[in-house]
Amino acid sequence: MSELIAATFDDAEQGPAALKSIRALEHDQGISLEDTAVIVKDADGKVKVHNEASTGTETGAVVGGILGGALFLFFPIVGIVAGAVAGGLIGRAAKPGIDGKFVKEVSEDLPAGGSALFVLTKSSDPGMLIAALRQYHGRIRQTSLDEDAEKALEASLK
Prior knowledge:
Blueprint: E1 2-9, H1 14-29, E2 33-41, E3 47-51, H2 55-74, H3 76-93, H4 100-109, E4 115-122, H5 126-133, E5 139-143, H6 147-156
Antiparallel strand pairs: 1-4, 1-5, 2-3, 2-4
Helix pairs in contact: 1-5, 2-3, 5-6
């Protein structure tokens, strides 16, 4: 089951740094991430969103590339178009990613100089995410964790 964590920070560096800590755990501890996004709002209020490819996008790109390459051998123009269409459809069908509307809503609410982190995991131990975020000071915006894990996460971000 996927778990969503969305946290906001008053500091522009904390969101990207928190993602870096979680990425380190992904490789060392086997946390499996479906999608991530970091928002940074500079002092002038300009928003930058760094949204990494979700699993659905990656799957669509791979399948579309294989299909397009195979068809390209026989029908060059059709192969390119069919590969792109198939990749888009597969990516959309498998789209488990973070909701873009929610990301936009959070970015509008961020104070100037703030940041936000969105993490969508698949079957990960919430305790590891809590430990990775413990060194950062922020607020939980939304989570799909159970009540105990959510309280532990909130306490760790204080």
